[in-house]
Write a structure and sequence with these properties.
Layout: H1 5-18, H2 21-35, H3 41-79, H4 84-142, H5 145-151, H6 156-181, H7 192-198, H8 203-222, H9 228-249, H10 252-257, H11 259-273, H12 278-291
Length: 292
């Protein structure tokens, strides 16, 4: 059945109520701010609920006016008997309006349901982000990240020299107790390069670690100045080993399901913590981007 002009006008008004231009712009800005971390999930959910409440109130008010007007028209027809053809036309209009009200009700219910689902998804997202941040904090505490980050603020000579015992400490954490218990194992006699191989780093990391160990041993015996290339090698080793420890100690299933959130949270964390050291900040953020 072809829609009457009145029905078309009615639907147009309802659509304008539901899809309010200024409100949609506000929502887009809020969603953009949320993705950039400028707005919390709770604030976004509250805005969605406010929009939903405004829609329900406006539609309820408009519908009540419409029903009131039609009721008055029907009452008037009961007072003043109408010709049969006019009465039939009015009955058809009433039937048409009832169908429209049912359509509007379904649309409102669908919209409310959609907003509820969006609200739930934002809560789930919030929970997911909270889990990610808690997992990162757990991991950083577990690997002693505070001491690693403190090394970024050492001067060049201290950093170059202290990286060596830091790597040896990793070996001791994993193998020292078992080696002390082994009857035929000479304590502390194994060369550093072999110790680094035992740590099981990926091949590209293992290669630069052993290069650094060799360069550091030469420096230790010659006491020559550290060349810029040797210092750059030490920084590369530090960044790769540190981030490898983080990635290896994160809960794998959570990392797999939330890679974007982990990348965003880790990037934000190191951006804040290394503000005073732009060189390490740049190298760590670049390495994170390559990993993810």
């Amino acid at each position: 059945m072809e829609k009457s002009q009145e029905l078309v006008d009615f639907e147009h008004i309802v659509e304008k109520i539901i899809f309010k231009e200024n409100e949609l712009k506000e929502l887009k800005i809020a969603i953009k701010n949320f993705t950039e971390g400028k707005t919390s999930a709770k604030e976004l959910k509250q805005l969605l609920l406010q929009c939903r409440g405004r829609m329900v109130e406006d539609i309820t008010y408009f519908t009540s006016l419409f029903v009131k007007k039609k009721t008055q028209t029907l009452l008037q027809t009961q007072i003043d008997p109408l010709p049969a053809n006019v009465e039939s036309q009015l009955r058809e209009e009433v039937k048409e309006k009832n169908e429209l009200l049912e359509t509007v009700a379904r649309r409102v219910n669908n919209l409310v349901s959609k907003l509820n689902n969006e609200g739930k998804s934002e809560v789930q997202k919030s929970t997911s982000i909270e889990e990610v941040e808690n997992e990162i904090l757990r991991c950083l505490n577990q690997i002693g990240a505070k001491k690693w980050i403190e090394m970024c603020y050492l001067d060049d000579l201290q950093f170059f020299v202290k990286l060596y015992p830091k790597l040896e400490a990793l070996y001791k954490e994993r193998f020292w107790e078992s080696e002390k218990k082994a009857k035929n194992s000479p304590e502390g006699k194994e060369i550093m390069a072999n110790k680094m191989v035992k740590l099981g780093f990926p091949k590209d990391i293992e290669t630069v670690v052993i290069q650094y160990v060799s360069v550091r041993n030469i420096f230790h015996h010659s006491m020559n100045d550290i060349s810029p290339s040797n210092l750059e090698l030490a920084r590369e080793v530090f960044v790769k080993v540190f981030l490898n420890l983080i990635m290896d100690n994160l809960e794998s299933k959570l990392l797999l399901d939330n890679r974007e959130d982990f990348y965003s949270s880790l990037t934000s964390f190191f951006s804040r913590r290394l503000t005073g050291n732009p060189k390490f900040r740049k190298e760590i953020l670049g390495r994170l981007k390559a990993i993810f």
